[in-house]
Amino acid sequence: MKRQLYTADHEAFRETVRTFLAKEVLPHYEQWEKDGIVAREAWRAAGRQGLLGLAVDEEYGGGGNPDFRYSAVLAEEFTRAGAPGIALGLHNDIIGPYLTSLATEEQKRRWLPGFCTGELITAIAMTEPGAGSDLQGIRTSAEDRGDHWVLNGSKTFISNGILADLVIVVAKTTPEGGAHGLSLLVVERGMEGFERGRNLDKIGQKSQDTAELFFHDVRVPKENLLGELNGAFVYLMTNLAQERMAIAVAGIAAAEHLLEITTRYVKEREAFGRPLARLQHIRFEIAEMATECAVTRTFLDRCIVDHSNGELDAVHASMAKWWATELQKRVADRCLQLHGGYGYMAEFPVARAFTDGRIQTIYGGTTEIMKEIIGRSLLG
Description:
Radius of gyration: 21 Å
Strand content: 15-25%
């Protein structure tokens, strides 16, 4: 089925993204995987190409276009290229909305220009060793000292944790407030007491730096409070829909690309004197995956349109995230199986896609959390 989601402008942007990948990412990606981190120059190159701050107002150096379809194109092309390590989606789609919707005019002028050029790489620090999806379990705290906050605590599994110059930290500012006593504090590179721990060794997405962060009596100026005091819970819930959509878009793009790779492989690979594609079982496997991808793509494209129009609710975003990422996981497993022993070899794209994609059903809210959100909406 021909997709009706994108205009000629979106497809022109897709060509820009593909050119950027071919020139600035793919020639260096293997080295980044070995290093466990992306070169900062790649971020600056993305800024020069106009791939950062797509929705940021032009007066701050951004693209000035809030149309989420451009972010979807970016996610699709990076996924198809097998290059999730340079986390532009995290920067644009997850961190960006906090800065554009909550920052004061002074904060915007201080942070957004660097955000758009790639000079200022961002992260959000919510997860702790003992608290993931349960915001009430957050122990990182900030004490009011008049003209500044004193921040103490630790975070883990923080994407861009090593590279980040600006970290939005979720901290408890009213101890008795539970999840509604949390605020967003912006910690900047070089602040005394802000330390980075290990660049964590993951099974996939090796080049995407993921770190532990530690805060020891960090003096955070009052000017670095993002949004209202104790408003973090509402902000987090508001922005999670876009985060989950971005993950879902990558999920269906990965599944479709794996299907393309595997379809070509079974046509070429022979067993028992004939191509694998001649075997009925193989044809059934491909038919099932193709149908699941087509159905999922139709739903995702509708969700993208609704989100671009400001009409997507948290429940449908959760449906999209759950379904697309679980499909990605199933397709990756089945495609690896159809590659046989070669599928287990690291140099084959299907092997890397298998490990890189496994996190998709976990971050941004686990599949179980997605089902709980959907179930509560239906059953109260």
